[in-house]
Design a protein that fits this description.
There is one protein chain. The chain is mainly α. Helices cover 83% and strands 0% of the residues. The radius of gyration is 17 Å and the shape is elongated.
Length: 144
């Protein structure tokens, strides 16, 4: 059995949305609540541990986006163009929020925590989560 680009993208978009929701609901609130005296150790441990997941998920999702883009909406049903646009657009939003806000903020947080940096990280994370959910919605549209 082989998957279509839309089916593969749906699996990856679902994994991405689950990952982002876990970060938003569980991981970042726990990190935010770390006492100041333990911040450096906790942030370094978080960065090391999450990098394993990101190193697998993000390249796979990028490959799924490329495959979907190469296939285009042809053969994905009557709502193919909408699904591709939502899927790729939402994922691009999540990637952009990671590259231009969350990752640089984590870099700054490595030197020490401030309320402004935590607020920036949480905002970037909300944007990433929204993007991942839009991407998942696009995948659902492609499958129905």
């Amino acid at each position: 059995m082989s998957l279509t680009s839309a089916e593969a993208f749906a699996v990856l978009a679902g994994a991405h949305a689950a990952f982002q929701l876990t970060v938003s609901v569980v991981v970042y609130p726990a990190l935010r609540d770390v006492p100041d005296h333990d911040w450096s150790r906790a942030h370094d441990a978080h960065s090391r541990r999450i990098s394993y997941l990101v190193a697998v998920l993000y390249p796979a999702l990028l490959a799924g986006c490329a495959w979907l883009l190469l296939d285009g909406p042809v053969g994905t049903g009557g709502t193919g163009l909408l699904g591709v646009a939502l899927g790729l657009g939402g994922t691009a939003l999540a990637f952009a929020a990671t590259a231009f806000a969350a990752a640089p903020t984590h870099g700054r947080l490595g030197a020490g925590r401030t309320d402004a940096l935590i607020a920036r990280l949480l905002l970037a994370d909300r944007v990433r989560t929204l993007g991942s959910l839009i991407g998942l919605a696009g995948a659902v549209v492609l499958l129905v």
